[in-house]
Amino acid sequence: MTTDLDTERWLRLFRPAPAAPVRLVCFPHAGGSAGFYHGLSQRLHPRVEVLAVQYPGRQERRAEPQITDIESVAEAIAGVLAPAWGAPTAFFGHSMGALIAYETARRLERTAGVGPVALFASGRRAPSTVRPAERLHLADDRDLVAEIVRQGGTPAGLFDDPELTAMVLPAVRGDYRAVERHRHRPGPPITAPVTVLTGRDDPKVTAAEARAWEGHTTGRTEVLTFDGGHFFLLEHQERIAESVLTRLLPDPTAAPGPA
To answer: Could you give the CA distance from residue 218 to residue 157 in angstroms, rounded to a whole number?
Structure first.
């Protein structure tokens, strides 16, 4: 049974918008936290109420066991969301977050009979696409840090502090282990339309891998390409917010009604 405490552990609401006609649940990338979506929340408020997922093993949840596999964390999030589904809800996930958002949607549709009205999959290839074995989670700390910095999206100087690095790196490694070991299980596609957002120079997602998301939904699939690498969304916050609004609201410029 899901409790209010479970909801408080898993979800962060930065800017309440009780009059918003739609909610957007955001799923962070590997090593990321709910705060990554502060900017998007600000740009969508008050027309969309943004909830951000906080994974275990980081920040105020750092004492909890880390993520071990994608399916178990999706199961937990689905269990938190289903009892309080209510308003139309869309999902937005970046990188690992897109994969968790998709798996969460699958579980909600299968077990609760509800699902997101839209899925925004950012910086992640389609779940069924297969690449040669990825083993970054087995790299030593130095190589792992170098790869994280190379991808961008990490606050400057984060890994200059040995104590902070020792605190952050276990969760990052655990996330990479979970996503690199994940294998897509065949099953019914989700019904939500999928908007794929990708960086033109992102080595983690090719054009074909982005388009392959169309095999995972019975709804429409479209691919939006932005200049930049894996963390292109940090450079295009306004455009991405506009893309979300256009696809979620009949009139993106309209003000929300009374609560």
So the answer is: 44
CB 145 within 8 A of CB 176: no
The continuous run of DSSP H or E covering 173 comes out as helix 162-181
The residue annotated as part of the active site, out of 33, 41, 72, 95, is 95
What Rg value do the Cα atoms of the chain yield, rounded?
17
How far from 156 is each of 7, 80, 132, CA to CA, in Å? 31, 34, 31
How much is the pTM?
0.92
- Confirm whether 243 is a catalytic residue: no
Contact 15, 42 (CB under 8 A): yes
Tokens for 240? Answer: 């991405």
Among 166, 184, 2, residue whose Cα is nearest residue 79: 2
What is the Cα–Cα distance from 86 to 45, expressed in whole angstroms?
A: 19
Tokens for 184? 């897509």
pLDDT digits (tens, 9 = 90+) for 68-103: 999 999 999 999 999 988 889 999 999 999 999 999
